[in-house]
Amino acid sequence: MIVVDVQRDFCEGGALAAANTLSLLVPLEKFIDGARAEHVAIVYTKDWHPEDHSSFRENGGLWPVHCVANTPGAELMPPLKAEPGEVVIHKGVRADGAGYSGFELTGLEKRLQELKVQNVAVSGIATEYCVRATALDALQHGFAVTVLTDLIRAVQARESGRVLAELTRAGVKVAAAEQWLKNL
Has 173 been annotated as catalytic? Predict the structure, then answer.
């Protein structure tokens, strides 16, 4: 299971908050606990940008400054917390490049192969950016991919349907979290 960018800066009150993220936290935490009980490997991705990241408006990019490495905004949003042995991937660590995908220059493919993972479920923030890119790259790397529709949030909620349709056309499955876990 890949938990994409559920960080302070992407949640309500953060520098680049997606819509309705606070409603995601408790169900996601509960589902992660259930997945752990079933021995599902949990991977957290985190934007981990340098101060001069090219995506920041002040550097000519589209976004306000967010998820700067080693700042409170880059931390996982409580109550989420990586347990010992779980994988935490830092992405967007170079000044250039979008860093949307959890696979972009992170070694995530290799880590998943070492864990003998064949099927991945993608959850988190934001549906139309990092969730989308991570799901498509997982598919590109040969994994069976399911996006957990009840455990994602978009920057613009109205974009979710369009993105999920695009992902489905590409070969990504969509399912509710409990359905995915039951079908493992």
Answer: no
Residue among 35, 37, 46 nearest 1 (CA) = 35
Q: What is the pLDDT of residues 83-118, one digit of tens each?
A: 999 999 999 999 998 899 999 999 999 999 999 999
* Active-site pick, 11, 47, 67, 91: 91
Q: Is position 91 annotated as part of the catalytic site? A: yes
Q: Please state the pTM of the whole predicted model.
A: 0.97
CATH of 2-182, one of 3.50.50.60, 3.30.870.10, 3.40.50.850, 2.40.50.140: 3.40.50.850
Residue 127 CB contacts under 8 Å (≥ 6 apart), including other chains: 18, 152, 153, 154, 155, 159, 160, 163, 164
Q: Catalytic: which of 5, 9, 47, 137?
A: 5
pLDDT, one tens digit per residue, over 39-77 is 999 999 999 999 999 999 999 999 999 999 999 999 999
Per the residue annotation, which of 9, 47, 130, 137 is the catalytic one? 130
> For the chain, what percent of residues have pLDDT higher than 90?
97
Residue 150 phi, psi (nearest 5): -90, -5
Residue 178: strand, helix, or coil = helix
